[in-house]
């Protein structure tokens, strides 16, 4: 199993990584920063209300002041914090962008800025890695955070983004399962039609670096026993590394089910930009933020 312990070790091997944090005046964010610096993962540019950031560090992580690994840049608003954090990445001062205590919208607005943003022409997509105790392995879920109802071409980009991250952490030929409610093609169920098209595109070399097979229901994608019982064959059934959800709603439900019902560890990033973006929820724990940072650092150039 590719565990977060392994990913943290791999991230620590990267040299001269700096993370730019938009809205760093948050205890959980600073806790993750402290954990990352203690693990020698990266240096940080902390953008936000300088007084609040300084007070939080002094009260909770005073050793950060002496570490030499933190630079604080003042911003009077969320919009300014987002702008300065994104510019730090686009101008080469940092190689990872991280969302702190700000809303997602102003950060993504700056990411997509035509003058200094991080656009590449690819679709931005949310890639989450779960360490699932009941499966005794890790599995990706995408896209649970960006694209509301992706069309076929967007799903191609979503798969490519996830496959690229899988390669980075050592899964050389990930098995990709486009999910649906059933395993057969049904003209009334768009997810099944898209899944079949993605499978054929993979076989014809239009999607490379992975094995795509679908449509697959969730049970047949992750459980060999379920796939065998239902006579669902193929190279992906029961062994999927990447679950491609049909819509953001279904992805969000699966994501939170794995967290709250499955007691899974998670790390997630936004892929498809010039640099990986850590876009965790403000409610996520410091450990989840650290996992996401490690995944982003491994994915950075």
UniProtKB/TrEMBL annotation:
<keyword id="KW-0808">Transferase</keyword>
<feature type="domain" description="Phosphate acetyl/butaryl transferase">
    <location>
        <begin position="4"/>
        <end position="55"/>
    </location>
</feature>
<dbReference type="InterPro" id="IPR002505">
    <property type="entry name" value="PTA_PTB"/>
</dbReference>
<protein>
    <submittedName>
        <fullName>Phosphate butyryltransferase</fullName>
    </submittedName>
</protein>
<keyword id="KW-0012">Acyltransferase</keyword>
<dbReference type="InterPro" id="IPR050500">
    <property type="entry name" value="Phos_Acetyltrans/Butyryltrans"/>
</dbReference>
<dbReference type="GO" id="GO:0016746">
    <property type="term" value="F:acyltransferase activity"/>
</dbReference>
<dbReference type="Pfam" id="PF01515">
    <property type="entry name" value="PTA_PTB"/>
</dbReference>
<feature type="domain" description="Phosphate acetyl/butaryl transferase">
    <location>
        <begin position="71"/>
        <end position="297"/>
    </location>
</feature>
<comment type="similarity">
    <text>Belongs to the phosphate acetyltransferase and butyryltransferase family.</text>
</comment>
<dbReference type="InterPro" id="IPR012147">
    <property type="entry name" value="P_Ac_Bu_trans"/>
</dbReference>
């Amino acid at each position: 199993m590719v565990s977060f312990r392994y990913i943290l070790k791999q991230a620590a091997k990267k040299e001269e990584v700096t993370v730019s944090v938009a809205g760093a005046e948050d205890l959980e964010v600073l806790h993750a920063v402290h954990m990352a610096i203690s693990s020698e993962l990266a240096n940080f540019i902390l953008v936000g209300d300088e007084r609040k950031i300084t007070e939080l560090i002094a009260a909770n992580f005073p050793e950060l002041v002496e570490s030499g690994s933190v630079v604080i840049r003042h911003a009077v608003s969320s919009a300014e914090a987002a702008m300065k954090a994104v510019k730090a990445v686009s101008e080469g001062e940092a190689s990872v962008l991280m969302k702190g205590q700000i809303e997602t919208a102003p950060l993504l607005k700056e990411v997509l800025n035509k003058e200094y943003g991080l656009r590449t022409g690819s679709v931005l997509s949310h890639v989450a890695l779960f360490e699932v105790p009941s499966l005794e392995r890790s599995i990706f879920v995408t896209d649970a955070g960006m694209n509301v109802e992706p069309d076929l071409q967007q799903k191609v980009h979503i798969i490519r983004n996830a496959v690229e991250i899988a390669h980075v952490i050592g899964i050389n030929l990930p098995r990709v399962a486009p999910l649906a409610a059933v395993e057969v093609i049904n003209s009334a169920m768009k997810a099944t039609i898209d899944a079949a098209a993605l499978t054929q595109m993979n076989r014809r070399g239009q999607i490379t670096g992975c094995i795509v097979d679908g449509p697959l229901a969730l049970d047949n994608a992750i459980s060999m026993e379920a796939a065998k019982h239902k006579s669902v064959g193929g190279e992906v059934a029961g062994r999927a590394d990447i679950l491609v959800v049909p819509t953001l709603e279904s992805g969000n439900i699966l994501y939170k089910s794995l967290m709250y019902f499955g007691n899974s560890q998670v790390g997630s990033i936004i892929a498809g930009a010039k640099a990986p973006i850590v876009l965790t929820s403000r409610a996520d724990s410091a450990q989840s933020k650290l996992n996401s940072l490690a995944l982003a650092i491994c994915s950075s150039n």
